[in-house]
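Posting here for the record, re: magnesium ion.
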Amino acid sequence: MANLAVVGAQWGDEGKGKVVDLLADRFGVVARYQGGPNAGHTVTIDGVRHALHHIPSGAFRPGVKIVVGNGTVLDLPKMLSEIDGLEAAGIDLSDRLFVSDRAHVILPTMAQLDALSEASTDVRIGTTQKGIGPTYEAKAGRVGIRIADLADREELARKIRRLVEGPIGKRIRDSGKDPGDAEAITARAHADGQRLAPYVADTALLLNRWIDAGESVLFEGAQGTLLDLDHGCYPYVTSSTTIAGGLCAGLGVSPRLVGGVLGVMKAYATRVGEGPMPTELADGPGGIGQTIRDRGREYGTTTGRPRRCGWFDAVAARYAQTLNRFDGVCVTLLDVLDPFPEIRIGTGYLLDGRPIDAFPATAAAAARVEPSWETVPGWRTDTTGARRWEDLPAAARAYLDRLGALIGAEVAVVGVGPDRTQSIVRPGSWLARAFDLPLPASPGDLR
Ligand code: GDP
Ligand code: IMO
Ligand code: MG
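Prediction output follows.
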């Protein structure tokens, strides 16, 4: 079976966790390739909501191996408590969780620097303040701490001293704060490293061996295309390569081994943090934006911040299609639009009154963009009980087809609620054919 990438097509929180969980049991391995605890991936099973930050969303499929790749950045205390929480909930991770020895460690100093940078700049990104940016900065600056460094206490102490007493610590001291004691940070990191050690491996080597032995891999993206460090709306982006292309470097897997790419997008748009969002509905209490927020429970999985909501942005989605070449897309949270008599789609952009056909390179230009709109009829029907494509109201199917046509990709899956059972794979679609779907395999799996 082909190896499949599942990638966010908007500004993150598209429902990747739910889709990965849905498909994971068709794969031998689920592997995360970038990001860290800035991610919050939700999987809801039998009414129980699980929020994952470091651990891939294949965790709830017993027997599926899960890999945290070299392209990720890890907050060890948070990751260990996530592992403990899953084990306490009866999810056995021993012998099936593999953490790259090349992944980078988020030191408390990095999270401190993230918060300080946000507080002391006129260009606030609205980061999750988990230390993501400073940790990737240290990685690119070749002074980062990797998982493999945790084993040798003396070497680790030297490297941490260099960070805390060097330029990174200086940035913290210069703003009147204490970057912490290098020895205490070392002691904690070393102890955490020992606890994590049973899971640590050369995951690039393992993945390639497993693929050679005929196992298939689902590559799980974090964040979304418009938050990509290069292609997103810079500087209002995260610090990693979120697009499908990032998986090759983030896991050590050749592009020749990627068999398909599934884009995940909401039936509308959300964004958390600062930066331009052309189709935003900042229409206040009682407005459509607030209705979407309430119905979609649009509050950050990681930070609890209210997400900014708006209509579907087809220009941004087409841009995501260009960068990722989705074989098909999954449209999630369709049910959120159930009550609206009319639905709008941002189909084009006007920049300073002139039509443009691409996402602008600068945030200043993106902030000046005015969308051009198309209005389509709503369906005013509860879709949350739909389990087959034919169960969806005709206007909902027409909306999905319109999105597919605007993006240039087939809508292969639709989400009608947060639960594992509330996804419909379109019969005969690329995904259904490639992975022997629609799910579930037997009617007994439902409800
Ligand atoms: P991720 O970061 O891409 O994994 O997405 P998040 O988990 O951060 O946010 C998606 C939210 O939407 C979560 O609360 C999910 O439980 C929820 N969700 C996912 N799919 C659907 C859907 O089809 N309908 C509804 N109503 N909620 C959904
Ligand atoms: P998942 O994987 C939504 C946003 C932050 C901020 C910007 C930079 O759950 O989709 P960072 O802390 O990464 O330096 O913040 O990116 N952001 C996300 N938004 N979903 C996420 O992850 C995000 N991870 C980061 O809000 O705007
Ligand atoms: Mg999320």
